[in-house]
Amino acid sequence: MDKIVIDHVVKKFKDDTVLNDISLSFEGGKVHGLIGRNGSGKTMLLKTICGFVPATSGSVSVDGKVIGKDTDIPDNTGIIIEAPGFLPQYSGYKNLKLLAMIKDKISKDKIISSIEQVGLDPYSKKRVGKYSLGMRQRLGLAQAIMEDPDLLLLDEPMNGLDNDGVCEIRQLLQELKEEGKTIILASHSKEDIEVLCDTVTELDHGVVIQSNSKC
């Protein structure tokens, strides 16, 4: 069953067409890869799927709900798009606790386990402002998964990670797939796409130039 259906989506900023007549569908319970150079439209497509940026024309539906019409943001979705934003004066745990208070649906233990899953110490008092890029990326992933979403939209989730970190996060994403999560992963790394993804869609200048299943 298709979890996400993108139907003739166009996104324009004045005379600049960033997404040009995109039609795709993504099956639930799989990892779907978006690949392309900088400026190819990967990030904008993710922003359109999650409702951050409305399409100029066409539609995006998630679980049968049209984004921007039936709902503003897809239900039960974890998101990393561009650099995760956190309050630099607080620890990683405190940042996630503050974010969790918005919906008030998860426990302290769930926050702690999510931080541990991405390879960080939930009890560290280190302020996020002192984190490396890789540590901030890990914390962003912890935020994305902590409320146990069905759908993950991840833009360059390996950004800033060393080789060991890349291996750890790949393993985590594989485990999440085995739990039945649907993951859309945008990456410039062909290796990440090859290792993780069931399907691959290549974008160039806002146009789908190739889309296929690896299965």
What key phrases describe this protein's structure?
215 residues; alpha/beta; Rossmann fold; 2 domains; 6-stranded mixed beta sheet; 4-stranded antiparallel beta sheet; 6 helices; 31% helix; globular
CATH class of the largest domain: Alpha Beta
How many DSSP H or I helices? 6
Number of strands: 10
Q: Considering DSSP H and I runs of 4 or more, what fraction of the residues is helical?
A: 25-40%
Distance between the termini: 16 Å
Strand order of the largest sheet: 6-7-8-3-9-10
- Which structural class best describes the helix and strand composition? alpha/beta
Give a structural overview.
31% of the residues lie in helices and 30% in strands. By secondary structure, it is α/β, with parallel strands linked by helices. α2 packs across α3 (108-117) and α3 (108-117) crosses α4 (133-145). The two termini are 16 Å apart. The model has no long low-confidence stretch (mean pLDDT 94).
Strand-helix topology:
Layout: E1 2-13, E2 16-27, E3 31-35, H1 42-49, E4 57-62, E5 65-66, E6 77-80, H2 92-103, H3 108-117, H4 133-145, E7 151-155, H5 163-178, E8 182-187, H6 190-196, E9 199-204, E10 207-213
Parallel strand pairs: 3-8, 3-9, 6-7, 7-8
Antiparallel strand pairs: 1-2, 1-4, 4-5, 9-10
